[in-house]
Amino acid sequence: MFEKVLIANRGEIALRILRACREMGIQTVAVHSTADSDAMHVRLADEAVCIGPPAPRESYLNVPAILTAATITNADAIHPGLGFLAENADFAAMVEEHGFAFIGPTPEHIRLMGDKVQAKLAARRLGLPTVPDSEGAVATVEAALDAAQRIGYPVLVKAAGGGGGRGMRVARGADQLKGAISVARSEAKAFFGNDALYLEKYLTQPRHIEMQILCDGQGGVVHLGERDCSIQRSHQKIVEEALSPALNAEERAYIGKLATDAVREIGYRGAGTLEFLYEEGAFYFIEMNTRLQVEHPVSEMVSGVDIVREQIRIAAGGTLGYTQADIRLAGHAIECRINAEHPETFLPSPGRIDEYHAPGGPGVRVDSHLYSGYVVPPHYDSLVAKLICFGVTRNECLMRVRRALAEFVIGGIETNLALHRRLLTNHDFLDGRYDVHWLERFVTSQRPGADS
């Protein structure tokens, strides 16, 4: 087992990894920008190294600085967390070339799944169903128009090397497609350094279903059930739950087997998530994330498996030591992402936390790096906390979420706590009747002057 792990990330996920290491008796190294000098994970780590100024490219994306920090602290391994360099195949390769273990998949698997076009082609070879698409990148507007005619409108323009809703536009006709191509290409180039685009059929009322898998790279493969991540705005997830209220046991077994068979075939190593759209009983693979997910806690709650601990064990050469038959999925879990943003305009709201109280009690978990007096910097993602609740039934879980949201206090900045509280009074949400477009409609309906 590793003696010392460097955590190449920040915020709540860095703190989550630090806690897993502590429970395993592993020392930790926190790297941080000057803006994060007072961050909770920096305060709690065994060692801390400042790697640059606030701008991510000069700190959390600064590969030489991170590798230097690992060298001078004699770290054994590097955990990339999520975001930043977590799905950067070149970084993973450099970590291993410098003699450190990379706590994640192989560079080859990150590279394969990082290109959305190649990932879908690989998925088809592995027997996974996919949304009808352009079957490769579209280099010109003419090629896009031809592909859209074959697929059928509406179509979704997507960045081949992107994610998180960037470089993504819906086109309902040829005229819209021309404009969407131009905007998406510019956005993809700016955010990912890769302006390649592809098209896929735009489903009108799909749910976003993803399967959490763990593989030891030595033949051991399991899934931890599905997560329903359909409550999202601008392709950014807001609420996730496990298990999905839309699937039955037969569908769960079907998609679970598809996912585990696929990753076993390619010899995958580590934690990963296969994402699907689900509509009218059919599943369509859209992408695979080769990293820890923000929403991993809901899978931990219903499976009893510590995913971060398993990531570390696998990277150290360990085997799973259990099979799918040993995984017992029970109960229900819901995660609310608490963002530092205006609840109506969704503009970021950095600033000093002048009051903080996290909810507690049975079945309540809060993953957050906040504390009273902490200053939320303006340079990074707006996620500041995750509220995760567990119940024996979905209804019990919903009641705990409602109670916990009422207890949650974050003062000094704007947050989306009010949005979550409104969700917990909506009958469609409470009944599990929603799709990936539902939240956009809900937010619009809540604006002053909107029809009730």
Write structural notes for this entry:
The chain has helices spanning 11-23, 40-44, 63-72, 89-97, 107-114, 116-125, 141-151, 174-192, 249-266, 296-303, 307-315, 394-407, 417-423, 427-430, 438-446, and strands at 4-7, 27-33, 47-52, 77-79, 101-102, 155-159, 168-171, 197-201, 207-216, 221-233, 236-242, 269-279, 282-289, 332-339, 351-352, 355-357, 364-368, 375-376, 383-391, 409-411. The protein folds into three domains: 4-103, 3-Layer(aba) Sandwich (Rossmann fold); 132-201, ATP-grasp fold, A domain (Dna Ligase, domain 1, 2-Layer Sandwich), CATH 3.30.1490.20; 207-446, ATP-grasp fold, B domain (D-amino Acid Aminotransferase, Chain A, domain 1). The chain is α+β, with helices and mostly antiparallel strands and 452 residues long. It is globular, with a radius of gyration of 21 Å. Helices cover 34% and strands 26% of the residues. The model has no long low-confidence stretch (mean pLDDT 94). The chain contains 15 helices and 20 strands. The strands form five sheets. The chain has an eight-stranded antiparallel beta sheet, with helices on both faces. The protein has a five-stranded parallel beta sheet with strand order 3-2-1-4-5.
Topology:
Blueprint: E1 4-7, H1 11-23, E2 27-33, H2 40-44, E3 47-52, H3 63-72, E4 77-79, H4 89-97, E5 101-102, H5 107-114, H6 116-125, H7 141-151, E6 155-159, E7 168-171, H8 174-192, E8 197-201, E9 207-216, E10 221-233, E11 236-242, H9 249-266, E12 269-279, E13 282-289, H10 296-303, H11 307-315, E14 332-339, E15 351-352, E16 355-357, E17 364-368, E18 375-376, E19 383-391, H12 394-407, E20 409-411, H13 417-423, H14 427-430, H15 438-446
Parallel strand pairs: 1-2, 1-4, 2-3, 4-5
Antiparallel strand pairs: 6-7, 6-8, 9-10, 9-12, 10-11, 11-14, 12-13, 14-19, 15-18, 16-20, 17-19
